[in-house]
């Protein structure tokens, strides 16, 4: 790394050694960015200067043009530098629900040359202390409605010296009004870190993933450009929080890169998302397979005729959910797998190339293969470890787990996949979710997919639990539809149903009915919690 605008060199000093980086490839001409690059200049300033009155961000009761967002971001950048003493390279904690003010704060940090650390609104004080200590965060901009946990955390965060709240009773808006509406963006380097995204931390300590200004543009110029192919006239919306890189990309970066607009919803559960889609006539939707499945049952009650593009990620997409959504709306889901370590989606497909049960092919600009335990490529049809590389890649913040994620130049995502003869990548399980029962390798998601075809099943999760005879058995945790009552007879019916859909040895030998399943704040199933709870008590047999 050469030129850097960072005066505070913490991020550069805590990058992994270059030898532990993944191999970065820049196969597409649009991925060759200049040495000096501030992503805010490309994503916001450029469009705002050309089309200041163009619609940019919407929220219930609120609408901002590109010019208005630019002015707000400029004023926040002035507050950060003039009032809060931020210097380029400082880390800034951002806390708030999905709202235009959070987007303005994010761009204010980018413009000032800071590093954004956006956190899930539901994080508690203990988690905020961990993140703040790990990233040595010095500044925070926070929605005043989330004040309580941050204030509880502050005594454990000696590095956090400057905190300003926005909203009713906060100081940020008043500070902004004292500042000029113009700001000269810091000339950051394309390889200056601009965000640290913490993984949801389903197990162990959270990991901070460091991404550069050029990475932010790279995901726009790969997946969004070549797979999503949205229009500047589109209105984007969805459920993922902006602290989740799936949400940051889908609801902010992708629309702004092409001059489109985004509808931000503070609450976007399926029952709230459906009427919002109809009211605002949204065109591009980002949410999880679980949400698509829930919404499919109610879709006929809402006008969804405006929907053109629907992206599913965050967890595996069952073929049955794809079918339900298409029958309900006529829209083919764009499935994808991404990772916080990679910033966004790296395997996907266009609607025309969708293949039920397959995630897709490498997004233009990325390469992928299947490796065995020794790091050797496997032929089509064999299950192994998914390996990927491209213009983005894993760079953990001062974390020894870097050597596990990056091997031989590849990012090893922790997913078990196979590639078929046509080059489609087909998800099997997380590598730690493969169930080995009586010598058979059984992928939990395949059993889940079969169970979801049954009309009584709303949600399910499948894990392996210890068994003295088979080593492990397949156990299913099932959430039934509201009108269905659990019973031993239904459990046996589900087992027989699975035997008819997939190889009989894969059926769940134990079934436990649940009111709900444990999930992270980004909607991912926490199967490890179910494995911890599960004991080989037999259940339905």
Summarize the structure.
This protein has 541 residues and is α/β, with parallel strands linked by helices. Helix content is 30%, strand content 24%.
Mean pLDDT: 94
What strand line-up does the widest sheet have? 2-1-10-9-11-12-13-14-15
So what's the CATH class of the largest domain? Alpha Beta
Decide which structural class fits the backbone: alpha/beta
Global morphology = globular
Largest sheet: 9 strands, mixed
* Count of helical regions: 16
Total count of strands: 25
CATH superfamily of the largest domain, please? ANL, N-terminal domain
Cα distance spanning the termini: 60 Å
What is the C-alpha radius of gyration, as a whole number of Å? Answer: 23 Å
Low-confidence stretches: none
> Which architecture of the largest domain does the CATH hierarchy give at level 2?
3-Layer(aba) Sandwich
- In what range is the share of β-strand residues? 15-25%
Q: What is the CATH topology of the largest domain?
A: Rossmann fold
The percentage helix is: 25-40%
What count of structural domains? 3
């Amino acid at each position: 790394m050469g030129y850097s605008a960072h005066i505070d060199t913490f991020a550069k000093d805590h990058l992994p050694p270059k030898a532990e980086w993944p191999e970065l490839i820049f196969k597409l001409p649009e991925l060759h960015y200049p040495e000096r690059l501030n992503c805010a200049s490309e994503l916001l300033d450029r469009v705002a200067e050309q089309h200041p009155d163009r619609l940019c961000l919407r929220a219930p009761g609120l609408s901002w043009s590109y010019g208005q967002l630019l002015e707000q971001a400029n004023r926040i950048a002035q507050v950060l530098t003039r009032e809060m003493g931020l210097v380029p390279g400082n880390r800034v904690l951002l806390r708030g629900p999905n709202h235009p003010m959070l987007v303005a704060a994010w761009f204010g940090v980018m413009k000032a040359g800071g590093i954004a650390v956006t956190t899930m609104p539901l994080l508690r004080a203990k988690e905020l202390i961990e993140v703040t200590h790990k990233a040595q965060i010095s500044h925070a901009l926070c929605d005043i409605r989330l004040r309580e946990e941050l204030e509880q955390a502050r005594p454990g965060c000696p590095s956090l010296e400057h905190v300003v709240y926005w909203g009713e009773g906060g100081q940020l808006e008043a500070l902004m009004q004292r500042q000029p509406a113009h700001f000269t963006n810091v000339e950051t380097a394309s390889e200056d870190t601009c965000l640290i995204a913490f993984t949801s931390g389903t197990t162990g300590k959270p990991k901070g993933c460091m991404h550069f200004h050029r990475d932010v543009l790279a995901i726009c110029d790969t997946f969004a450009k070549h797979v999503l192919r949205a229009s500047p006239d589109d209105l984007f919306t969805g459920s993922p929080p902006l602290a989740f890189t799936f949400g940051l990309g889908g609801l902010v970066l992708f629309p702004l890169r092409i001059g489109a607009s985004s509808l931000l919803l503070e609450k976007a559960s399926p029952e709230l998302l459906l009427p919002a889609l109809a009211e605002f006539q949204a065109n591009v939707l980002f949410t999880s397979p679980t949400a698509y499945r829930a919404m499919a049952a109610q879709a006929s009650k809402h006008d969804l005729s405006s929907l053109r593009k629907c992206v599913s990620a965050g967890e595996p997409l069952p073929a049955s959910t794809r079918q339900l959504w298409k029958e309900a709306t006529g829209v083919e889901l764009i499935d994808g797998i991404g990772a916080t370590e990679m910033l966004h989606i790296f395997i996907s497909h266009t609607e025309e190339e969708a293949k039920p049960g397959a995630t897709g092919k490498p997004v233009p600009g990325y390469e992928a293969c299947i490796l065995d335990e020794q790091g050797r490529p496997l032929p089509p049809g064999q299950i192994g470890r998914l390996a990927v590389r491209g213009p983005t890649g894993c760079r953990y913040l001062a974390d020894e787990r870097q050597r596990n994620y990056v091997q031989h130049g590849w990012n090893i995502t922790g997913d078990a996949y196979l590639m078929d003869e046509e080059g489609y990548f087909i998800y099997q399980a997380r590598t730690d979710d493969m169930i080995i029962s009586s010598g058979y390798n059984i992928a939990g998601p395949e059993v889940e997919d079969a169970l979801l075809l049954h009309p009584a099943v709303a949600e399910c999760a499948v894990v392996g639990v210890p068994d003295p005879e088979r080593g492990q058995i397949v156990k299913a945790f099932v959430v039934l539809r509201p009108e269905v009552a659990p019973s031993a007879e239904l459990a046996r019916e589900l087992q027989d149903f699975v035997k008819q859909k997939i190889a009989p040895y894969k059926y769940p030998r134990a079934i436990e009915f649940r009111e709900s399943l444990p999930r992270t704040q980004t909607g991912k199933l926490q199967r490890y919690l179910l494995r911890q709870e599960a004991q080989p008590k037999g259940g339905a047999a």
